[in-house]
Write a structure and sequence with these properties.
With 125 residues, the chain is mostly beta strands. Helices cover 0% and strands 54% of the residues. Strands 2, 4, 5, 6, 9, 10 and 11 form a seven-stranded mixed β-sheet that branches. The chain has a four-stranded antiparallel β-sheet with strand order 1-3-8-7, with no helix packed on it.
Amino acid sequence: QIQLVESGGGSVETGGSLTLTCDASGNKYLPFCLAWFRQAPGKEREAVAQIDTGGSQTYFDSAEGRFTVSKENTDRGRLLTLHMTQLRPEDTAIYSCAAQINYGAGCPVNRYVYWGRGTQVTVSS
């Protein structure tokens, strides 16, 4: 089991920056992928960025070049961070972190089974 708790959401103006963190606790010896997803009102949830067990990062769509995902080991598991810059009104959404235990290569986006409750990010124009 992996427990995920996000923090760092808030309101910012267009062009601003925010950093989200996710405390991922559980069996820290398990290999697991971590990711950020977001869901805007009236839209499907979408992947934003993920980082695999080896630290390789993948960015999806508009996150490329503006967002940076990273992780570090903690006593309880991992701390996942999403640093967002050049924020736009269309980035407004609830951002959730997710985890999947993965012993193989890659992190299939549809295999995330552990989820945090999410944190609201609002970007005003």
